[in-house]
Design goal:
Order of helices and strands of chain A: HHHHHHEEEHHHHEEHEEHEEHEHEEEH
CATH class of the largest domain in chain A: Alpha Beta
Number of domains of chain A: 2
CATH architecture of the largest domain in chain A: 3-Layer(aba) Sandwich
Number of helices of chain B: 16
Number of domains of chain B: 2
Structural class of chain A: alpha/beta
Strand content of chain A: 5-15%
Number of strands of chain A: 13
Oligomer: heterodimer
Shape of chain A: elongated
Largest sheet of chain A: 6 strands, mixed
Radius of gyration of chain B: 32 Å
Largest sheet of chain B: 6 strands, mixed
Shape of chain B: elongated
CATH topology of the largest domain in chain A: Rossmann fold
Radius of gyration of chain A: 31 Å
Number of helices of chain A: 15
Order of helices and strands of chain B: HHHHHHHHEEHEHEEHEEHEEHEHEHEEH
Strand order of the largest sheet of chain A: 9-10-11-7-12-13
Strand content of chain B: 5-15%
Chain lengths: 512, 504
């Protein structure tokens, strides 16, 4: 294996084809744009969103990433990688600082500190990974590379020289005697800290939290002339170490290893995603590794949820309702009907998200997921704007669905949300029936959200799912879906004990 | 150095928000009049007594600790008042000193921070000496846990050696020989960890060393006149050097100041208690120090319990009530209108709160168990905002109480649910009150609903006590409650007319 082509994202060691420059067309409809924003927002240093734009072409590649995910889900692996990556942030920003400064001695110092952080981080990462038995090919390759790299001559000398210089600089102390317009610079001679003596004296009056009177001085990285003059006197007091610093910078330019730099970027895809998983797991929203099949066209998902909605609710400490999906042998289409704002669209979106995230090699937002490995995903959502032109809108919808049916194959997934919702229900019925029949004929998988229950009864490939209602309290929206025939019943709103003052309510409220 | 006069082991948390029910509690129990009497027109006292009285204690030991201090303050009121004025003087005096040097730039300049803090400390160390003198003079007079500890602390902690050390520091802070700043190499070799260093006892040898350096002109930087950026840099360097020392001195000044401020706050409560005590005793009303029941016991026993707030409004004395509710968690009060029912439950609420503030109570004798908190729900005489309807207003207020109340609290209900008919009001009331009792809340219930009161007599006789306001045979009201269950048809027509404003 050539060391230039190690990727933790792609098993075949391909070039950059795991990047997509543009999100897929269905991103917005499935709220995957929000999902990816939420995830990539956790990583400010690197652009990770493009890693989410390109689904994988084979089950083997999916397995490659799932293995890396499984390794990284172990806290010891996750922590080791996170530590390395956050040290790399410091390395890069120190280097940047070094390049920006004017004063040569300052540039040298930032450079040494950057190399110091880098060499410590690399050694620690290597030490961490040696203590862990990794399962994934992707991370094993990195660990192998690392173990060779830390023994290389370049690296060992970088590390020992940087450490020595840093230690010597940290020993330097000096005094400034400031009187009138004169500053006298002298060496340090164990003089006592006066401020802490004063504070000690008044300690017996100390309160829990005292105010901080220290003035916050703006801290510029560069020096003014007086500081530079002081530094030059200090340099004269310690000539050796400053001279060595100059030599170091000349010898070690470009010290960062290419493979580690690429790894640092690519692994953010995993870290950011796992970070998101952990946050939601705290709210009881677990993820799972989907079982993908290339030939069995069936879907069994339990406890699936909408990741975008979960991200939003998590900010208020809440969790969305979880739902099941089942398409057994011969079943192709889920028709979702029921009351408004009962969670139908969310239900359909979540199914699309689960299938797409599975195709990226990611764990999916569900308790259990067995999926058919779809070749493409299409969405047909009502377009909100342009309400004036109903005829134009219907035309547009038909043009779009026609295009989808032209591209889709029997291996595709189509999500339809209130398609033809703006037409009269007779029309919507006729159009919906026509489209669903074509999809059934094609053999594609489809989730269709509609207010027309009859659509759930037009063919045997169809499974009917309805928003659940509590019989005792029909006013409450449960956002739960259940597989049962659509009956179109009316939902009356119930009278509730508005103030919660009955014996039972009060006892309940007092117990919590 | 902590005053610890309100709690044995901690300061009173002045920043804690007042309990959520404070406003209705103060209104329903007519506490404002008590607070005003305690404050005698002093705004600061008013704020303190309101805050302390409403922040109930929940432990008998805490109550006993305050009672001990208060009893001695009552016995030695002139000393207590002298101590309070000393604390007051420290705080008013400091404002004059602090005024010096407070300028627009003071927050941005360590030199000014330091200057002001040194001034303040000079003043405060003077006040500390005076406080010590006061302590030495009076310490023999006090033996309660709180005051004995306090006076001993004054004498031992503020010893002359300590006060001398403070003086010495203040002298050094003049920096007559220049400012000596220690530094290290920080990020990018910028100076870091600047600290003021003392030349200490070896000052002379140090100055010699500096003089040697001075003779090597290469180690000296002289900022030429008119070099403005140079002087700004010098000033910043000096500022950075002084920064942490100025902080230390300013914090020290704050610490000493906060001692005086806590002392003033804590004494203010006792001064308020003295004022109210003098007012009640001055008109011949009795007061007594209550004894909380042992943990686990429930009950209330009172002799001559009266509404202190009402008494302060009258020329003469108040009618007191006596009863024994040993083991009872529900006290149902029924009977004629204007027969003293509201006054009675008000006196109960006041006594409970005053006991749990560590105060005396308005009675000849009063013992009860310590509750966690006191809640009141009184019928609002007039409802300005009728938007929700009267019953709705009452129920939503009650619902708000359910949100806050919990096991071990006391709830006083005064004609709650009264704005609907007896059947409905009794049903709502019965369910609600039973749930309160079953949840461990003690309830005083004033009601004119016979159905409600008698349902408790039938089902909860064991845990309930029934008191009744009577009309004398000649129709006059005695304002004295007697033990007895509710009477049916008690002036039903009157009551109906009262509530609904029309005949049935």
């Amino acid at each position: 294996m050539t060391s230039g082509s190690l990727s933790v994202l792609q098993g075949r060691g391909g070039a950059e084809d795991h990047f997509g420059s543009e999100p897929p067309l269905f991103f917005g409809d499935l709220n995957l744009d929000q999902v990816v924003n939420g995830i990539s927002g956790r990583c400010s240093s690197h652009e990770v969103a493009p890693f989410f734009f390109h689904s994988l072409a084979s089950l083997g590649e999916i397995r490659y990433r799932q293995e890396v995910f499984r390794d990284l889900e172990r806290s010891e692996v996750f922590d080791a990688v996170s530590r390395f990556c956050s040290s790399m942030r410091v390395v890069m920003s120190d280097l940047e600082q070094s390049n920006k400064l004017y004063n040569l001695r300052q540039r040298q110092r930032w450079f040494i500190d950057s190399a110091g952080v880098y060499s410590k981080a690399v050694s620690a990462f290597d030490r961490d990974l040696r203590g862990i038995s990794l399962e994934s090919v992707g991370l094993k390759n990195i660990a192998d590379h690392l173990s060779r790299y830390v023994d290389s001559k370049d690296f060992t000398s970088l590390r020992s020289e940087a450490e020595k210089l840093q230690a010597e600089f940290s020993e330097v102390r000096y005094n400034l005697l400031i009187k009138a317009n004169k500053i006298t610079v002298t060496g340090f001679d164990g003089e006592e800290d006066f401020g802490s003596r004063v504070e000690e004296t008044f300690q017996r009056f100390a309160q829990v939290a005292g105010r901080d009177y220290r003035v916050k001085y703006a801290s510029w990285p560069d020096m003014n002339r007086v500081e530079e003059e002081i530094l030059e006197i200090v340099v004269r007091m310690h000539p050796g170490v400053f001279e060595a610093a100059a030599g170091f910078s000349a010898r070690h330019s470009g010290f960062i290893d290419n493979i580690l730099a690429t790894f640092d970027h690519e692994v953010q895809f995993y870290l950011a995603y796992i970070h998101q998983m952990r946050e939601l797991e705290r709210l009881g929203l677990g993820f799972c590794y989907p079982l993908l099949s290339g030939d069995k066209k069936e879907f069994y998902v339990s406890g699936g949820f909408d990741l975008a909605l979960a991200q939003k609710l998590a900010r208020e400490g809440k969790a969305p309702v979880r739902n099941d999906y089942e398409l057994g042998p011969g079943e192709r289409i889920i028709v979702v009907s029921g009351p408004n704002s009962g969670g139908k669209t969310t239900y359909a979106r979540a199914f699309g998200q689960i299938n797409y995230l599975a195709s990226l090699g990611c764990p999916v937002p569900a308790r259990r997921a067995e999926l058919f490995f779809c070749d493409q995903i299409f969405t047909h959502f009502e377009i909100e704007e342009d309400l004036d032109n109903l005829r134009g809108k219907l035309e547009d919808e038909l043009v779009r669905i026609h295009g989808i049916l032209g591209k889709a194959t029997g291996r595709s997934l189509i999500i339809m949300n209130e398609s033809f919702g703006s037409t009269a229900s007779g029309d919507a019925m006729i159009l919906g029936r026509a489209v669903l029949s074509q999809i059934a004929e094609l053999g594609a998988t489809c989730v269709c959200v509609t207010f027309i229950d009859e659509l759930s009864r037009i063919s045997q490939e169809i499974v009917s799912v309805v928003a659940k209602v509590l019989p005792d309290d029909p006013g409450v929206r449960t956002f739960e879906m259940e597989a049962r025939p659509a009956d179109g019943q009316a939902y009356a709103s119930a009278i509730s004990d508005k103030y919660g003052l009955s014996y039972e309510s009060v006892m309940g409220r007092m117990r919590k | 150095m902590r005053a610890f006069l309100l709690f044995e082991d901690r300061d009173f948390d002045q920043d804690a928000p007042s309990p959520a029910n404070s406003e209705s509690l103060a209104g329903d129990l007519e506490l404002e009049r008590l607070f005003e009497t305690m404050a005698r027109g002093d705004k600061y006292l008013l704020r303190v007594v309101r805050q302390v009285v409403l922040a109930s204690l929940s432990e008998s030991t805490e109550i006993a600790y305050r009672q001990g201090v208060l009893k001695e303050c009552i016995a030695r009121s002139e000393v207590a008042r002298e101590m309070y004025s000393l604390a007051e003087e420290a705080l008013t005096g400091i404002n004059k000193v602090s005024f010096l040097g407070v300028g627009f730039f003071s927050r941005e300049n360590p030199e000014l921070t330091l200057h002001r803090a040194v001034q303040q400390l000079r003043y405060l160390s003077e006040m500390l000496s005076r406080l010590r003198e006061f302590g030495v003079r009076n310490s023999a007079l006090f033996s309660s846990a709180g005051l004995a500890r306090f006076f001993e602390m004054l004498v031992t902690e503020l010893d002359p050696e300590y006060l001398g050390k403070i003086k010495e520091h203040l002298e050094q802070l003049r920096f007559r020989d220049g400012v000596l700043v220690g530094a290290e190499l920080g990020d990018g070799h910028k100076g870091a960890n600047y600290t003021i260093r003392t030349m200490g006892p070896a000052k002379q040898s140090w100055l010699k060393k500096a003089a040697q350096a001075l003779s090597r002109t290469s180690d000296v930087i002289v900022i030429p006149e008119r070099d403005e950026p140079g002087f700004r840099a010098l000033e910043e360097l000096r500022g950075r050097g002084i920064n942490s020392a100025a902080n230390a001195v300013a914090r020290s000044s704050d610490h000493v100041l906060s001692f005086f401020s806590a002392l003033r706050f804590e004494l203010a409560f006792y001064i308020g208690c003295l004022n109210l005590h003098e007012a009640l005793r001055g008109k011949g009303e009795p007061v007594c120090f209550p004894e909380p029941l042992r943990l686990g016991d429930v009950g209330m026993e009172a002799e001559g319990l009266y509404d202190a707030s009402l008494s302060l409004r009258l020329n003469g004395r108040c009618v007191g009530n006596s009863f024994n509710a040993d083991g009872k968690v529900l006290i149902v009060v029924t009977g004629v209108n204007r027969g003293g029912k509201s006054t009675f439950v008000r006196s109960v609420g006041q006594a409970q709160l005053m006991m749990q503030a560590g105060m005396y109570v308005a009675a000849n004798k009063f013992n009860t168990d310590v509750r966690n908190g006191v809640f009141t729900h009184f019928k609002r005489e007039e409802d300005k905002d009728m938007a929700g309807g009267k019953l709705e207003e009452e129920l939503s207020r009650m619902s708000g109480i359910v949100e806050q109340i919990s096991v071990g609290d006391l709830l006083i209900l005064n004609e709650s649910f009264a704005s609907t008919n007896e059947r409905e009001g009794s049903q709502i009331g019965r369910g609600f009150v039973t749930a309160m009792l079953d949840s461990g809340v003690k309830v005083f219930l004033v009601t004119h609903f016979y159905e409600l009161a008698s349902s408790f007599a039938r089902a909860d006789g064991e845990r309930a006590l029934f008191l009744r306001a009577n009309r004398e045979d000649d129709g006059a009201r005695s304002f004295r409650l007697v033990e007895g269950e509710a009477l049916s048809t008690v002036h039903g027509e009157d009551i109906y007319r009262e509530i609904f404003g029309s005949s049935p």
